[in-house]
């Protein structure tokens, strides 16, 4: 999925490069003027084939990035919808895995999908899943490290987030939908209209989706924003959350890489 999109054996001259890019993602437009190829006698025909191949590659990329969205709407609907997205939102990078950042917003304003209001949130979770998958490597926090912190310092420590950690509050149960669908499990009994907070981590090589309570979301938001553990616990306590369970999750989920002591946080 990291192969480049572009075929550099066919290029327009510099004067027509804008027209080339415009025609590439607009099938109703004719082939651009000045098109040439290596020994090509019918470059317009080759351009049409190339244009279709580029579109298919991008649609395939979207299908691999948003598999649950495709499962929810069906392959035919998804591919037709994805073609419209490709035409309106051409890529800005030759790397396919970086494509589709605006796809959730596109779904939110796509009238044929209006009966599935949770679809955009599902796409947001899947996009964050991919971002976490491609994030930099780092060793996750060793849970035993907390035992080296004195009781007096415990409330003042801060946790350094793992590069792969993502957290998002959603209006719909998109995290639950993605987790079940990616595990091949049915969605029976899931109310997609319930709001949800989702923590996405990558403790080893596998991305993990954790559904958080309202108190859990407040707890992790504080920690990920650089607040001290004590502040995070206060925020969670206001939501009647299980503080011990949240601290355990922070230590074991792979969401953080290290503990920053009060002395380290105040050093210049």
Q: What report would you give on this structure?
A:
With 268 residues, this protein is mainly alpha-helical. It has 2 domains: 107 residues, no CATH class; 135 residues, no CATH class. It is 44% helix and 11% strand. The strands form 3 sheets. Strands 4-5-6 form a 3-stranded antiparallel β-sheet. The chain has a two-stranded antiparallel sheet with strand order 1-2. The protein has a two-stranded antiparallel sheet with strand order 3-7. Strand 5 and strand 6 form a beta hairpin. Helix 3 crosses helix 4 and helix 3 runs antiparallel to helix 6. The N terminus is likely disordered.
What is the CA-based Rg, rounded? 23 Å
Q: How is the main sheet built?
A: 3 strands, antiparallel
Strand order of the largest sheet: 4-5-6
Find the structural class using helix and strand composition.
Answer: mainly alpha
Helix and strand pattern: EHEHHHHHEEHEEHHHEH
* Unreliable residue runs: 1-17
The helix tally amounts to 11
Helix content: 40-55%
- The shape is elongated
Average per-residue pLDDT, rounded, comes to 84
Strand content: 5-15%
Count the domains. Answer: 2
How many runs of DSSP E, i.e. beta strands? 7
Report, as a whole number of angstroms, the end-to-end distance.
43 Å
Quickly list its features:
mainly alpha, two-stranded antiparallel ribbon, 268 residues, 11 helices, 2 domains
Short description:
Helix content is 44%, strand content 11%.
Architecture blueprint of SSEs:
Layout: E1 10-11, H1 17-24, E2 36-37, H2 43-65, H3 67-73, H4 75-88, H5 103-108, H6 119-134, E3 158-161, E4 166-170, H7 174-182, E5 196-201, E6 208-212, H8 214-224, H9 229-237, H10 243-252, E7 256-260, H11 262-266
Antiparallel strand pairs: 1-2, 3-7, 4-5, 5-6
